C-alpha cells in the first residue's frame, strides 16, 4: 500500500547522500507503487538551480545508483514532474515563508492534504536553526501531519545531544522526530527478530545457558575517503559504535517484545542499553576496549597511506579508525556472556557479520577423548552478503567417529529474483507512513551516549593505548588477546 501523500523537503539536495541514496530510494519506491501520485519533492540547498537542472541531477543519480533502471521514459517523466528545486538560505526566515507559499501550491497541484516530511541531510548543528525557521516560516501550519527526519550524528556526546534534543523538542514532538540509523533499515538487521522469535531451533537456546559468546564485526575496506574533516573529530567510537554497533547488539540481546509494535520494540531495546555494564574507570576501559589507527599498508597489490596522511586529517591525530570491545549485558538472560564487537576502516574485507557461538555439549566419552569439538555457530550475514548459516558437527565419512564441522547456508543475496530494497528505501517509506520502529528514540540515543561517553572520557586521560595497525590488516592484535583471555577467538568472517 502506498504511503499517504506528502510534500518531501530535502535539505541538502545537492549533497552526496541525496545523490547516492535518497533520489534512488524515492525512485524505487515510486516504481513499486509505494509512493502514489500525490507527492512532491522540493530540493533545497543554497546553490541556485533550475527545476530542469535539478531533475537532471536526480536522473543522473538514478542511472548511477538505483537498483531499478530509469529506462521507461514515460515513467521517468511522470516521476520527474513531482520534483522542484528552491535555493534557500537556511538562516533567513523569509526564504521559509516563500517555501511555505510554494508548498501550498504543491498541495493544490498534487492534491496533497498538507502533510509535511522534512528530511535534513545537513550537518547536525543546523537541525535546531532549520527547525525554528520551519516553525517561524509557517510551514507547520498546513493542517496535515509533520515529520522531521534527521541523519546522524545526533550530537557529539550526551551533553550536546541533550542540547540538540532540547531545541528540536521546542518545535516537534518526540513521535514526530525520526532519527535515522541506516543499519535499522537493512533487511538482515530486521531479520534478526524473525530468526530469533520465529524459530524453535534458536529461541529456547538464546541465553547464557547455551550461548558462549556473541561476536559482531563491521569491517570496511575504505579509509576515510574525502570525509577526513568530519571523521577526525568523530572517530569509530562516535561514527559506528554509538549507533550501528549498539543497535545490532540491542536487537540480538533484547527480550521478546510483547508485540511487534514500535514502542514495544523500542522499550525492549532501551532495557538492553540500560543493562550494559558501565566501565567504571580508565583502567576498566583499557582492559576491555581497544582503539586503533591505520598506518601505511596494502590491500592486494594496492598500497595504502596511513590515516595521518589522509586529506584534512591532523598529521598527529589520535583519532581511532578501529574500535573493539568486550561488553557485558548484565541481566538475567545474558549474565556471563561476553559480547565482542569490532569495527574499523581499512580492514581486509567489507563485511558486517554477527556470530553466535553456542556452548559445547558436555564433555563425554563418545568422541575421541581430549579432542576439541567445534562449537555450533549461527552466523548472520548483514552486509554486503545477506544470509544466514549454521555450523555444526557431523561424522567424517569413512572414519569410525571422527567429527568434521559442516555448514548449512541460506544465502539471501544469491537468490535470483530477490532484489533487496536499500536501507534508505525502507526508512523513507516508513517515515512517510508514520512507522517509527526502525528509528531511534531519544532514550535509546541518550543511553547509548552515556555508555560511549565513559569510554571517551577514559581516552582523554591518556592516548598510550592507541594501537597502530597496518592498513589492510584485521586491526590491533590486542583485541585478539582480549578474546583469548576468555578462551575464545574471532571466527573468520566472510
Ligand atoms: C556510516 C558511517 O554511518 O556508515 C560511515 O558514517 C560508514 O563511516 C558507513 O562507512 C557504513 O555503512 P554501510 O551500510 O556501508 O555498512
UniProtKB/TrEMBL annotation:
<dbReference type="GO" id="GO:0050661">
    <property type="term" value="F:NADP binding"/>
</dbReference>
<comment type="function">
    <text>Catalyzes the oxidation of glucose 6-phosphate to 6-phosphogluconolactone.</text>
</comment>
<feature type="binding site">
    <location>
        <position position="152"/>
    </location>
    <ligand>
        <name>NADP(+)</name>
    </ligand>
</feature>
<keyword id="KW-0313">Glucose metabolism</keyword>
<dbReference type="GO" id="GO:0004345">
    <property type="term" value="F:glucose-6-phosphate dehydrogenase activity"/>
</dbReference>
<comment type="pathway">
    <text>Carbohydrate degradation; pentose phosphate pathway; D-ribulose 5-phosphate from D-glucose 6-phosphate (oxidative stage): step 1/3.</text>
</comment>
<feature type="binding site">
    <location>
        <position position="46"/>
    </location>
    <ligand>
        <name>NADP(+)</name>
    </ligand>
</feature>
<dbReference type="InterPro" id="IPR036291">
    <property type="entry name" value="NAD(P)-bd_dom_sf"/>
</dbReference>
<keyword id="KW-0521">NADP</keyword>
<feature type="binding site">
    <location>
        <begin position="12"/>
        <end position="19"/>
    </location>
    <ligand>
        <name>NADP(+)</name>
    </ligand>
</feature>
<feature type="binding site">
    <location>
        <position position="239"/>
    </location>
    <ligand>
        <name>substrate</name>
    </ligand>
</feature>
<feature type="binding site">
    <location>
        <position position="220"/>
    </location>
    <ligand>
        <name>substrate</name>
    </ligand>
</feature>
<feature type="domain" description="Glucose-6-phosphate dehydrogenase NAD-binding">
    <location>
        <begin position="10"/>
        <end position="191"/>
    </location>
</feature>
<dbReference type="GO" id="GO:0009051">
    <property type="term" value="P:pentose-phosphate shunt, oxidative branch"/>
</dbReference>
<dbReference type="InterPro" id="IPR001282">
    <property type="entry name" value="G6P_DH"/>
</dbReference>
<dbReference type="Pfam" id="PF00479">
    <property type="entry name" value="G6PD_N"/>
</dbReference>
<feature type="domain" description="Glucose-6-phosphate dehydrogenase C-terminal">
    <location>
        <begin position="194"/>
        <end position="491"/>
    </location>
</feature>
<dbReference type="Pfam" id="PF02781">
    <property type="entry name" value="G6PD_C"/>
</dbReference>
<feature type="binding site">
    <location>
        <position position="186"/>
    </location>
    <ligand>
        <name>substrate</name>
    </ligand>
</feature>
<keyword id="KW-0560">Oxidoreductase</keyword>
<dbReference type="GO" id="GO:0005829">
    <property type="term" value="C:cytosol"/>
</dbReference>
<feature type="binding site">
    <location>
        <position position="182"/>
    </location>
    <ligand>
        <name>substrate</name>
    </ligand>
</feature>
<feature type="active site" description="Proton acceptor">
    <location>
        <position position="244"/>
    </location>
</feature>
<comment type="similarity">
    <text>Belongs to the glucose-6-phosphate dehydrogenase family.</text>
</comment>
<feature type="binding site">
    <location>
        <position position="350"/>
    </location>
    <ligand>
        <name>substrate</name>
    </ligand>
</feature>
<dbReference type="InterPro" id="IPR022674">
    <property type="entry name" value="G6P_DH_NAD-bd"/>
</dbReference>
<dbReference type="GO" id="GO:0006006">
    <property type="term" value="P:glucose metabolic process"/>
</dbReference>
<keyword id="KW-0119">Carbohydrate metabolism</keyword>
<feature type="binding site">
    <location>
        <begin position="89"/>
        <end position="90"/>
    </location>
    <ligand>
        <name>NADP(+)</name>
    </ligand>
</feature>
<feature type="binding site">
    <location>
        <position position="345"/>
    </location>
    <ligand>
        <name>substrate</name>
    </ligand>
</feature>
<protein>
    <recommendedName>
        <fullName>Glucose-6-phosphate 1-dehydrogenase</fullName>
        <ecNumber>1.1.1.49</ecNumber>
    </recommendedName>
</protein>
<dbReference type="InterPro" id="IPR022675">
    <property type="entry name" value="G6P_DH_C"/>
</dbReference>
<dbReference type="InterPro" id="IPR019796">
    <property type="entry name" value="G6P_DH_AS"/>
</dbReference>
Amino acid at each position: 500500500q502506498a504511503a499517504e501523500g506528502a510534500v518531501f523537503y530535502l535539505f541538502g539536495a545537492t549533497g552526496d547522500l541525496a545523490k547516492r541514496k535518497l533520489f534512488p530510494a524515492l525512485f524505487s519506491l515510486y516504481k513499486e507503487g509505494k509512493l502514489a501520485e500525490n507527492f512532491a519533492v522540493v530540493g533545497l540547498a543554497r546553490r541556485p538551480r533550475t527545476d530542469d537542472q535539478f531533475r537532471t541531477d536526480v536522473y543522473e543519480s538514478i542511472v548511477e545508483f538505483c537498483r531499478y533502471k530509469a529506462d521507461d521514459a514515460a515513467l521517468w517523466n511522470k516521476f520527474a514532474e513531482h520534483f522542484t528545486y528552491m535555493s534557500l538560505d537556511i538562516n533567513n526566515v523569509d526564504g521559509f515563508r516563500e517555501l511555505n507559499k510554494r508548498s501550498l501550491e504543491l498541495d493544490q497541484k498534487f492534491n496533497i492534504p498538507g502533510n509535511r516530511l522534512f528530511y535534513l541531510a545537513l550537518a547536525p548543528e543546523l537541525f535546531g536553526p532549520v527547525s525554528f525557521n520551519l516553525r517561524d516560516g509557517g510551514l507547520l501550519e498546513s493542517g496535515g501531519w509533520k515529520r522531521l527526519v534527521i541523519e546522524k550524528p545526533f550530537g557529539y556526546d550526551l551533553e550536546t545531544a541533550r542540547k540538540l534534543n532540547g531545541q528540536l523538542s521546542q518545535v516537534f514532538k518526540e513521535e514526530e522526530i525520526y532519527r535515522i540509523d541506516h543499519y535499522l533499515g537493512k533487511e538482515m538487521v530486521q531479520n534478526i527478530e524473525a530468526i530469533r522469535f520465529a524459530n524453535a531451533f534458536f529461541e529456547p537456546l538464546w541465553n547464557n545457558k547455551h550461548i558462549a559468546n556473541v561476536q559482531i564485526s563491521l569491517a570496511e575496506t575504505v579509509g576515510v575517503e574525502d570525509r577526513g574533516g568530519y571523521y577526525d573529530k568523530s572517530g569509530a567510537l562516535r561514527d559506528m559504535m554509538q549507533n550501528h554497533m549498539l543497535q545490532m547488539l540491542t536487537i540480538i540481546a533484547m527480550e521478546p517484545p510483547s508485540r511487534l509494535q514500535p514502542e514495544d520494540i523500542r522499550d525492549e531495546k532501551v532495557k538492553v542499553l540500560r543493562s550494559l555494564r558501565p566501565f567504571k574507570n580508565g583502567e576498566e576501559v583499557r582492559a576491555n576496549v581497544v582503539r586503533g589507527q591505520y598506518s601505511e599498508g596494502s590491500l592486494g597489490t594496492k598500497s595504502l597511506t596511513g590515516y595521518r596522511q589522509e586529506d584534512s586529517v591532523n598529521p598527529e591525530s589520535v583519532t581511532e579508525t578501529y574500535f573493539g570491545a568486550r561488553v557485558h549485558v548484565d541481566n538475567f538472560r545474558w549474565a556471563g556472556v561476553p559480547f565482542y564487537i569490532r569495527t574499523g576502516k581499512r580492514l581486509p574485507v567489507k563485511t558486517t557479520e554477527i556470530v553466535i557461538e553456542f556452548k559445547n555439549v558436555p564433555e563425554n566419552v563418545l568422541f575421541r577423548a581430549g579432542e576439541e569439538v567445534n562449537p555450533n555457530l549461527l552466523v548472520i550475514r548483514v552486509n554486503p552478503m545477506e544470509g544466514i548459516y549454521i555450523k555444526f558437527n557431523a561424522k567424517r565419512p569413512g572414519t569410525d567417529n571422527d567429527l568434521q564441522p559442516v555448514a548449512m547456508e541460506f544465502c539471501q543475496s544469491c537468490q535470483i529474483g530477490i532484489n533487496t530494497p536499500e536501507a534508505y528505501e525502507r526508512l523513507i517509506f516508513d517515515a512517510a507512513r508514520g512507522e517509527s520502529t526502525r528509528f531511534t528514540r531519544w532514550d535509546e540515543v541518550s543511553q547509548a551516549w552515556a555508555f560511549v561517553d565513559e569510554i571517551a572520557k577514559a581516552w582523554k586521560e591518556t592516548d598510550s593505548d592507541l594501537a597502530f595497525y597496518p592498513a589492510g590488516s584485521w586491526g590491533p592484535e590486542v583485541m585478539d588477546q582480549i578474546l583469548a583471555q576468555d578462551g575464545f577467538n574471532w571466527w573468520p568472517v566472510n
